[in-house]
Design goal:
The chain has 73 residues and is mainly α. It has a single domain, classed as Orthogonal Bundle (Arc Repressor Mutant, subunit A), CATH 1.10.10.10. The protein is built from four helices and two strands, in the order αββααα.
Length: 73
C-alpha cells in the first residue's frame, strides 16, 4: 500500500494534520478511536466515507511515524 494514495497532508485542510484523502477525517481521529477500544466496524459506522483500507493506512502511517523518531514518555 502506498500511503500517499490514502493519506494527505495539506496546510489548508485541518491545519495541516494528516487526513484520509478526499476527507477531513484526521488520522489521529481514527487512531484515537482504535486506542479507545472501538473496532473497525464501529469506526466505519461512525464515518461511513471511510473504508477498511483507510483505517489500515492510518495504522501504517502511525507505525511509520514511530520509526522516524523517539518520543520520551
Amino acid at each position: 500500500m502506498h500511503l500517499t494514495e490514502r493519506i494527505t497532508v495539506n496546510p489548508e485542510v485541518c491545519h495541516g494534520q494528516a487526513c484520509i484523502s478526499g476527507t477531513r477525517i484526521m488520522v489521529s481521529i481514527i487512531l484515537d478511536n482504535l486506542a479507545a477500544g472501538l473496532d473497525k466496524d464501529e469506526i466505519l459506522k461512525s464515518y461511513p466515507s471511510l473504508t477498511v483500507e483507510d483505517i489500515n493506512a492510518a495504522l501504517a502511517y502511525a507505525a511509520m511515524l514511530t520509526k522516524e523518531q523517539v518520543i520520551a514518555i
